[in-house]
Amino acid sequence: MVRARGLAVLVVATFAAFACGGSTGGGNTSKGEIDIASDLPVSGADASSGLPTQEGANFAVTRAGTLKGYTLKFVPFDDAVNGAHDPQKGVQNVQAMLSNNKILGMVGPFNSNVAKAEIPVGNQGPLAMISPSNTNECLTQAHDYCQAADGFTAASLRPTGKNNYFRVAAPDTFQGPAMADFALKATSSQGLGLTKIAVWDDEETFGQGVANNFAQEFTAKGGQVVDRKSYDPKSKADFHDFIASAISKGAQGIYLGATSATKGCIARGEMTASQASSLYYLGPDGIGDSQCIKDSGSNANDKMYVTQGVADATQNPTAKSIVAAYEAAYPGSSNVGAYTFAGYDCAAILIDSIGRAIDANGGNMPTRQQVIDAMAKTSNFQGLTGTITFDANGDPTHPTLQLQHYSGGNWTFVAQFSQGS
Amino acid sequence: MNGALTRTPAAALRSFRSSQVSTFIGLLILVGALALTIQHVLQQSASYFFQILVIGVADGAIYALIALGYTMVYGIIELINFAHGDVFTLGAFVSLALLPMFGVSEGTSGPGWIIPLLVVAVLTMAICGGINVAIERVAYRPLRHAPRLAPLITAIGMSSILEGAMYLWRGPFNLHYPNLLPQNQLIIRGVAIGYKDLIVVAIAIILVAALTVFINISKLGKAMRATAQDRDAAQLMGININGTIAATFFIGAVLAAAGGIIWGLYINNVTFDLGFETGLIAFTSAVFGGIGNIPGAALGGLLIGVIAAFNNAYFDSSWTEIIIFAILIATLVFRPTGLLGMRVPEK
């Protein structure tokens, strides 16, 4: 009886040992676990942008599986509260990350106003932060309008004086003007040929910043901003008065410095059919998601154009196999957002940086500061959305963005713009 | 004479309110605001002015429908029902859920949606009425003899519960409401008035008129007026107080639900927390027009709607909220009975 029980225990233990070997090749003892965290809005109106991005980052981590003997694990956090990205929740998430010793870096955040709150916390951690989609230029660059326009400067976000924050997205100093140039370009050169435009913003860091950048470039290159308005997304629901105002001043189109969560596309849904068919509706990546298409209702048409802060990975021939593998793992067009592959690249760069830090540390678990130092040295990293080298501020040296317009139910690719700065 | 320096603050405020000075200051502010507005209006075209006026009246009509519920409940049990704005949102949500069941969606053309919409409207109003009566029975009736603060706090709690329920039901997303009303516009001397705007105002007028007739002619209306005037005397006269109050809540919810459906048809977009802000604006309208006063609520709603639209159009829309709540505070300080006064029982 005892012998039989002992045999049973031995058999069970053997099975357990094999089972616990898991996907990392079973049997090999892992040197430990390294966690990659993410902080993105994955519930509510922002979910249509945040969730596909999180899935992209998750895919990169699971695809890598291990790193120089360490097991990799993906730890996602959600910074949406009641359906919209919330800076305070983001800060709480970063604090939670800092208290988990296995987390060596994070992918995110998605929104610039969340980054504004999180960067100082991550800076003091320190914790490496890499964002797939933040585009507000004042987060990394020093401009004399930053304090007045946005209420902070890049230096004020870094109390230790060193940088811990990086991004792969093109800053708004590029995104806003790129749309302005496209809007002004003659239709014979594949532009929109607009001369009069109304510009609205949602009074948030990102929205107001990109709207100002757009308006400045549009005016500088000879166009006219006939109506400039701001609204508080929490209290404004009825945009009929804004639409009437824009039309009465002769606007041919409207530029929305906003996100879908801050009611960027509600105004499109409130237009009459004739207004929607004659007015162009332009915007930054904030409204380039499926929530915007839902909010526009029957007024979604091909006069809606957006820029996305990163290139289209499907246009990159070297990315084909990984894109296909992702689409097999996460089927359905709702799982591919504009920043999915940027999220993948961010996680991949973070993993690569941790790898280099492990090497520099003689194969041992690196410190968070070592990971940050390794990330700053990232050079010519072949990502799905392009080749990435970080400059001294943490910005990509050659940002690319894509132009999309609405066609057949989705945002579809129109063109790509690169900037060699 | 001898009491002038030793007056209590309450007495001082009372005498200030009734004095010439406060009226004068109030008028001065009003004239100043009007002058500033006229200056901005003249800078733009007349057709734009009428356009904004139409939008303001349409918005104001919706606020008026919600304000009526606030004012009726306050008149009868002196409670500010903060959950009322959420009954308005619930009306929009319930109708949004019912419309597909009757085959109505955004593409449904022609009169194919009129009958189903009316049926959905009646159902929604009945459902919201029922829910409001249940809320009154569960949350407010037990506290009828408690200090006035208790039901007020309960109302705030009820508002959170309703918002939470809607959040759990449809999530935090902006929900698109089908665009059913005709989109054509009537062009009169260069002013484009949408059929949508006219329909919204027409429905509101019909409902307010129906309510006024009901209150003044029907037996239940008389009971409601009697209960509002003096609850104990009404009870002594044989009026069923509980039933009358329940009926008040039912009617208030019916109007709010109608407002919710109209909001959806006009703005084409609802969110679970819409009622919080809209409810506060409607409450301000009720107070501004005269709390407890039905024509007052309608007038207050209309004025607030017009003021908000004008501010958004001619000035900086960031100021709209500030102005609306400044009006609330100013009303309570300078003229607490509101524009049309309150039918205050002689106590």
Q: Can you characterise this structure?
A:
The complex is a heterodimer of chains A (421) and B (347). Chain A has 421 residues and is of the alpha/beta class. Chain A folds into two domains: 30-170 and 314-390, 3-Layer(aba) Sandwich (Rossmann fold), CATH 3.40.50; 173-308 and 403-418, Response regulator (Rossmann fold). Chain A contains 14 helices and 17 strands. In chain A, strand 9, helix 7 and strand 10 (224-230) form a beta-alpha-beta unit. In chain A, helix 2 packs parallel to helix 13 and helix 3 (87-98) runs parallel beside helix 4. With 347 residues, chain B is mainly α. Helices cover 71% and strands 3% of the residues of chain B. Chain B is globular, with a radius of gyration of 21 Å. The two termini of chain B are 29 Å apart. Chain A binds chain B through residues 43-45, 80, 82-84, 203, 229-232, 234-238, 240-242, 244-245, 248, 260, 263, 266, 269-270, 272-274, 291, 294-295, 297-298, and chain B through 44-45, 47-48, 51-52, 55-56, 58-59, 106-107, 167, 171-174, 176, 178-179, 183, 185, 194, 266-269, 271, 273-274, 277-278, 309, 312-313, 316-318, 320-321.
